[in-house]
């Protein structure tokens, strides 16, 4: 790499096999332009052609910290240099060198953007212990969207989902998680249809049995079946 005062042959990034050890004569490729040779600096180019260094800077969009390369066309004044040599923040970017392509390595599938739980949707095939009543109603919402603050079918948040399911079974529950827990009775022996309190009471779902539950999780995953152990469990609540 070359700078305003750095010889073209000074930096290790340039292979010595590709550059003559004898400085080449200055080459003009077109009127008002100059082709950079090994050993050139912007200062030496300007002096050799009777123009000021500042004029070369201005014509090429360069500066004192800029880097030039052998074979690069430098404008000696007037029109700006070709776009491939214009710079931002006074740095010229060399053409990238192709890197060896490594053999692909299988990587774990990342959770979708916005997914704060990373829960697998594979649990959606789970069959609840009870196939009627609250659990059956809850399974009708499987795959539905999550909408923060929502309470209608297919557009609900966690407590809105629970409230809707219970309402279809003739049970009126308050709107928020803590109010729902307060309206029911704590139990250490949860049954299908009971509520599951998670994450310090900030999340609620409906217990399906066999350690599984269904809940409206987040916008990226929506409403799905998952293990009760996917998040910390605070307790269970029954009617």
Automatic annotation (TrEMBL):
Domain of life according to the entry: Bacteria
InterPro entries registered for this protein in UniProt: LysM, LysM_dom_sf, NLP_P60_dom, Papain-like_cys_pep_sf, Peptidase_C40
Record-linked Pfam families: LysM, NLPC_P60
Keywords: Hydrolase, Protease, Repeat, Signal, Thiol protease
Residue ranges of domain NlpC/P60 in the record: 128-239
Domain LysM: 32-76
Residues spanning the signal sequence: none
Family: Belongs to the peptidase C40 family.
PANTHER family xrefs: MUREIN DD-ENDOPEPTIDASE MEPH-RELATED
Name of the protein: LysM peptidoglycan-binding domain-containing C40 family peptidase
Taxonomic placement: Bacteria, Bacillati, Actinomycetota, Actinomycetes, Micrococcales
């Amino acid at each position: 790499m070359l700078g305003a005062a750095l010889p073209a042959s000074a930096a290790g990034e340039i292979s010595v096999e590709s550059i003559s050890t004898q400085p080449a004569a200055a080459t003009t490729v077109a009127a008002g332009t100059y082709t950079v040779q090994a050993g050139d600096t912007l200062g030496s180019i300007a002096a050799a052609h009777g123009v000021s260094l500042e004029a070369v800077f201005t014509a090429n969009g360069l500066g004192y910290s800029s880097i030039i390369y052998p074979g690069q066309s430098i404008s000696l004044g007037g029109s700006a240099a070709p776009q491939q040599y214009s710079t931002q923040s006074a740095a010229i970017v060399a053409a990238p060198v192709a890197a060896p392509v490594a053999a692909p390595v299988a990587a774990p599938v990342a959770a979708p953007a916005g997914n704060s739980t990373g829960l697998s949707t594979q649990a959606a095939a789970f069959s609840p212990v009870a196939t009627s009543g609250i659990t059956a109603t809850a399974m009708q919402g499987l795959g539905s969207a999550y909408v923060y603050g929502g309470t209608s079918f297919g557009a609900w948040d966690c407590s809105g989902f629970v409230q809707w399911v219970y309402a279809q079974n003739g049970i009126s529950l308050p709107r928020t998680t803590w109010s729902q827990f307060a309206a029911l009775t704590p139990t250490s022996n949860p049954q299908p249809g009971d509520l599951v309190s998670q994450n310090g009471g900030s999340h609620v779902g409906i217990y399906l049995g066999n350690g599984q539950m269904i809940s409206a999780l987040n916008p990226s995953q929506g409403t799905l079946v998952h293990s009760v152990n996917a998040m910390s469990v605070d307790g269970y609540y029954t009617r």
